[in-house]
Amino acid sequence: MRWQQRLPLTAVVIAIAGVHVALGAGCAVLLLRWWSPWAAVAGATLCALPSLVWSLHRAFAPSHALFRALAGTVASYRDSDYGFGVSWQGRGALGELVAAHNELGETLRAQRLSLVQRELLLDTMVQNTPVAMLLLDPGDRVVHANLAARRALGGGRKLEGQVFSALLADAPPALADAFARGGDGLFTIGDGETEEIHHLSRRHFRLNGRRHELLLLRQMTTELRRQEVQTWKKVIRVISHELNNSLAPIASLAHSGAELLRRGQTERLPDALRTIEERARHLEGFIRGYAHFAKLPSPRREPIRWRAFLDQLRSQVTFADTGPIDDAFTASFDAAQVEQALLNLLRNAHEADGDPGAVAIGLRRAADGWRIDVLDRGPGMNEAVLANALLPFYSTKRNGTGLGLALAREIAEAHGGRIALLNREGGGLCVSLVLPD
């Protein structure tokens, strides 16, 4: 679209007015010959007025067309159509207005192109991810579902607009049960060679002022089986190491005992038998620890007074209190399991800190239950150890089994709680065990 203005608008208007004044004056002179002065003036005015109106209309027509073009392009911008621009060769305020308008159009055009490219990239990523993704509106209808979700729940068909509960009616029972339980979690579909392990994640958020739910369904079979194989390899290495450390000296001492008996040197037999007994008991305790970790029963909760519980714990291992503990403080937990967890933590603290008086327990009320802190002034842990210390079979000790902290974590999580490790200011470690009410 092009609108051109060669001369300044003011000059054009002045020129037109001058021409029509001259025309009117000429008409007045001619009419004075026949009419009175006032009639002559009126007649001249009537004679020049139509021409003046027509000339002004012609003079302002380009400006009117420009304003209509600007209004049209603004309407196009509102409809997300940025393919229009305005050309105006005049100067002054109108020229600046047109330039600013075209610059705005170019900016909107570039932003639109960038948004389209980002949307295309995002849609490509969402559609091709192996994670099934569904977005549900407040009415439980599917707003969006990617290709993985279509394959998992619709046999490849489009799911948008369908009621999600109706889709679950035709889904595998394990999947329907996982959604019925609510929250995140793992579930298994099939059995034997066809077994598939999936992880369900659910998140709520507000979209356009309305509550929506995002569902993520991820198959974990390959990853979990790979981790399971690595874990079993590590278990086998640890068990093989412990068995070799015990069985090798037992076999050696048994052979030596047989030689002593053959030679009649029985005075050295008690030492050999004592060492065999010690190694056998160590091996028995090692295997019992693994069995206990693998067969941890569900906690049997009962009301426990903290003061009495900690006094009983102190009779088995030494520690100090960081503050007074009221006799009225009570909580509901499995006393035997929590005692085992704290014993493991306290023994680790004593091994890390050579000063028994520096090992302490702090008890305080937390927002969601009770927090028990086991404190020491040992060397603490570096970042790598902190990241792996709670994993089963991970140990930095030469003869460690890597089960102490892992068992404490298992007990805490069985109670619905958690455990955390943190280096203390001034040196040492704080292991926090949180138990919910």
Automatic annotation (TrEMBL):
<dbReference type="GO" id="GO:0016301">
    <property type="term" value="F:kinase activity"/>
</dbReference>
<keyword id="KW-0812">Transmembrane</keyword>
<dbReference type="InterPro" id="IPR003594">
    <property type="entry name" value="HATPase_dom"/>
</dbReference>
<dbReference type="InterPro" id="IPR035965">
    <property type="entry name" value="PAS-like_dom_sf"/>
</dbReference>
<keyword id="KW-0472">Membrane</keyword>
<feature type="transmembrane region" description="Helical">
    <location>
        <begin position="34"/>
        <end position="56"/>
    </location>
</feature>
<keyword id="KW-0418">Kinase</keyword>
<dbReference type="InterPro" id="IPR005467">
    <property type="entry name" value="His_kinase_dom"/>
</dbReference>
<feature type="domain" description="Histidine kinase">
    <location>
        <begin position="238"/>
        <end position="437"/>
    </location>
</feature>
<keyword id="KW-0808">Transferase</keyword>
<dbReference type="InterPro" id="IPR036097">
    <property type="entry name" value="HisK_dim/P_sf"/>
</dbReference>
<dbReference type="Pfam" id="PF02518">
    <property type="entry name" value="HATPase_c"/>
</dbReference>
<dbReference type="InterPro" id="IPR004358">
    <property type="entry name" value="Sig_transdc_His_kin-like_C"/>
</dbReference>
<protein>
    <recommendedName>
        <fullName>histidine kinase</fullName>
        <ecNumber>2.7.13.3</ecNumber>
    </recommendedName>
</protein>
<dbReference type="Pfam" id="PF13188">
    <property type="entry name" value="PAS_8"/>
</dbReference>
<dbReference type="InterPro" id="IPR036890">
    <property type="entry name" value="HATPase_C_sf"/>
</dbReference>
<dbReference type="InterPro" id="IPR003661">
    <property type="entry name" value="HisK_dim/P_dom"/>
</dbReference>
<keyword id="KW-0597">Phosphoprotein</keyword>
<keyword id="KW-1133">Transmembrane helix</keyword>
<dbReference type="InterPro" id="IPR000014">
    <property type="entry name" value="PAS"/>
</dbReference>
